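Two folds, back to back.
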Amino acid sequence: MELFTRTWGSPAAPAMVLLHGASGNGGAWQEFAASFSDRWHVIAPDQRGHGQSPRADAYSFDLFADDLHGLLDAFHVEQAVLVGHSMGGVAAYRYAEKRPSRVTALVLEEAPPPVPLGLQLAPRPEGELDYDWALRPQIIAELNAPRPLGKIAVPTLIVAGGEQSHLPQAEIAAMAEQLSAELVTIDAGHLVHRNRPAEFAAAVRAFLADTNR
């Protein structure tokens, strides 16, 4: 799987990988990435089935995590900070479970917690889509019947969107407690980095400073 990828900053700087949510693409991180490119090599792929990356025969969070592993190897990145929104957050924490030595810190923005969510598949929008519609039923099925969350041994920040979000905030808080993660709530709904970009960036920057990243 060869992913279309956007980059900012110097390749000699510490790496930060940004993973977008379902139906999005790496361009959603443009403003956030630009604000961190002064000291980070920021890498934002279009994940499989999204944007300019290839469509695939199968989609799962393990496959997204495997793609991430290949991406790090392709960029010769030994360790990276992972920032994941929604679907990208699940891919990020699944990767951190499997390969903690490759992750220096983890930021999960409105990542669905590993509890049955009872999500329903909406009708397909009309017209051409910027992503593969076939991924949605596969991802929703996995979110509705997730496997238990394993141990994550890296510093973790969880950013919740508050009451405007469709995700269960109490379960996100429980996930933060299970992971001994820092929890920050920004009352912006599911798209925190888009609706409150300055506050989201400030929370990430403070977290990385506290962890000496």
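---
second:
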Amino acid sequence: MDQRFWDELYGSAGRLWSGRPNDALVAEVTGIPPGRALDVGCGEGGDAHWLARQGWQVTGIDISRIALERAAALAGDLDITWRRLDLRTEAPDTGYDLVSAHYFAFPRDQEQVLQRVLAAVAPGGSLLITSHAGMEERHQGLYRPEEIAARLGEDWRIVVDEQRTRTLPANGHTEDVVLRARRR
């Protein structure tokens, strides 16, 4: 799925998502002292907006220009950096205290995408990945969160690796898998 696909998807509707932050983000980040946060695949910015309201210095990245324009317009006076980035060919900045990726596809045949996201987490920082339970089984070419957890190595500590019921179903999905790890 390239920039054209995502621009067409975002261009096909006035708004695709609710604008509310993801449940797992709120549950896992509430109480963590704010710092620098990277929202991977930020879409229309619901998570980035919430993080900024909590005091985080947020950078939202997405492959879609249309999604980023919409996210910036919906941000109002929130101070968020928006950047169009294709993780297949470009790496984000590093040194983030939180790298958050909700419902972002990590393709097995493009290992550099996962490695670039992992490299963005600062020592002492957190990685938060959420996916729809069972999504990877329907899309065999994607890493499952537990596979990502197994690949992290000794310089990471797994904080959460579990399946949860969503408070609001999304497109028929009622269960999510949440992975939160902390870099040592």
